[in-house]
């Protein structure tokens, strides 16, 4: 699994990387501009991300606009809707009102910060990207 973690705060990115690195290759971006660039590059190289963790709030380009651009890139490349990258939006209480708009823009799930590892893994499992049962048996 290839994961792009987009959050302006280093500590938030580091915690997600630590939680997810056992499940796949993690890349980081600290803002929306970097995220779009990384997503377009990976998609253009035919090595797309399977999962994007995207914070809703950014100073220069917010997560909702980044999500819209990600979906635009996929549409432009003719990605089958069933094969689109799974996007989990992350938010804090101040950005709670944006969650409904994120769902309308095409996010697949959302998690409130601080993110707890077990909730994170269960959400990824619901998206069909990992199996916690298989992981526990290995």
At a glance:
By secondary structure, this protein is α/β, with parallel strands linked by helices. It has helices at 10-20, 32-44, 63-76, 99-105, 117-126, 132-137; strands at residues 2-6, 25-29, 51-55, 86-91, 109-112. The two termini are 17 Å apart.
According to CATH, the homologous superfamily is Response regulator
The biggest sheet, with number of strands, parallel, antiparallel or mixed sense and barrel status, is: 5 strands, parallel
How many strands in all? 5
Strand order of the largest sheet: 2-1-3-4-5
Quaternary form:
single chain
Low-confidence stretches: none
Average pLDDT confidence is 91
Distance between the termini: 17 Å
Strand fraction equals: 15-25%
What is the CA-based Rg, rounded?
A: 14 Å
Global structural class:
alpha/beta
CATH architecture: 3-Layer(aba) Sandwich
Describe, in plain words, how this protein is organized in 3D.
The protein starts with a strand and ends with a helix. The protein is of the alpha/beta class and 138 residues long. The protein has a five-stranded parallel sheet with strand order 2-1-3-4-5, sandwiched between helices. It has six helices and five strands, in the order βαβαβαβαβαα. It has helices spanning 10-20, 32-44, 63-76, 99-105, 117-126, 132-137; strands at 2-6, 25-29, 51-55, 86-91, 109-112. The model has no long low-confidence stretch (mean pLDDT 91). The chain has one domain (2-133): Response regulator (Rossmann fold, 3-Layer(aba) Sandwich). α2 packs parallel to α3.
């Amino acid at each position: 699994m290839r994961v792009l973690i987009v959050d302006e705060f280093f500590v938030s990115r580091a915690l997600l990387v630590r939680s997810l690195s056992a499940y796949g290759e993690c890349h980081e971006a600290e803002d929306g501009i970097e995220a779009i660039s990384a997503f377009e590059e990976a998609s253009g190289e035919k090595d797309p991300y399977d999962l994007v963790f995207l914070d809703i709030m950014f100073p220069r380009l917010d997560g909702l606009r980044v999500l819209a651009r990600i979906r635009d890139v996929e549409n432009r490349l003719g990605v089958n809707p069933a094969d689109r990258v799974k996007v989990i939006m992350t938010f804090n209480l101040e950005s709670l009102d944006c969650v409904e708009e994120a769902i309308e823009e095409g996010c697949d799930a959302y998690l409130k910060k601080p993110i707890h590892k077990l909730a994170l893994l269960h959400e990824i499992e619901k998206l069909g990207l990992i199996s916690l049962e298989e992981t526990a048996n290995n």
